[in-house]
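--- STAGE predict ---
source: upstream dedup step, 1 unique chain passed
mode: sequence only
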Amino acid sequence: MDNGRISARYAKALYEYAAERKKEETIYEEMKFISNVFSLTPGLAKALDNPRISSEKKKELIITAAGTGISAELRRFIDMVVERKREAYFQFISLMYQTVYRKENRIIIGKLTTVKPIDSQQEQRMKAIVAEKTQGEVDFVSNVDPGLIGGFVLQVGTYQLDASVSNRLKMIKNALLQVR
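--- STAGE serialize ---
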């Protein structure tokens, strides 16, 4: 079996288990935290895949990665994953759980890039506009890129709206080069 199928099965099972207990949002937040820890700590995935490290130590590593005060449901899930020797897939399970949760709850991930950080009011207005168009909830990841000079770039799924000054300048340059 491949990594993706195993991760998808475990993530879907966790989502169903969490939904029965009305804890799917709690576990969603915990899995976002865990996947962030994995991305910031590359050695964690290697440690979970290391056969020399005991199952108990691997369980401790995952629980530590989940942060303080994790839910009983997630703790039970971690026990089951380690018991079945699937801990090496935990990073992918956490990512896949987020995908399952977003799909079930119609949450769209958007990426907003601006020249300088925007305030929460501006972000909420942008979220409302996108939510109205997509008929779903929007979760933004905000980035700052001074290279845009001004304006913004909004990516939602495969859609991209580039309203940056740097893009406009590039379009003007290309138009002028074609005139020659």
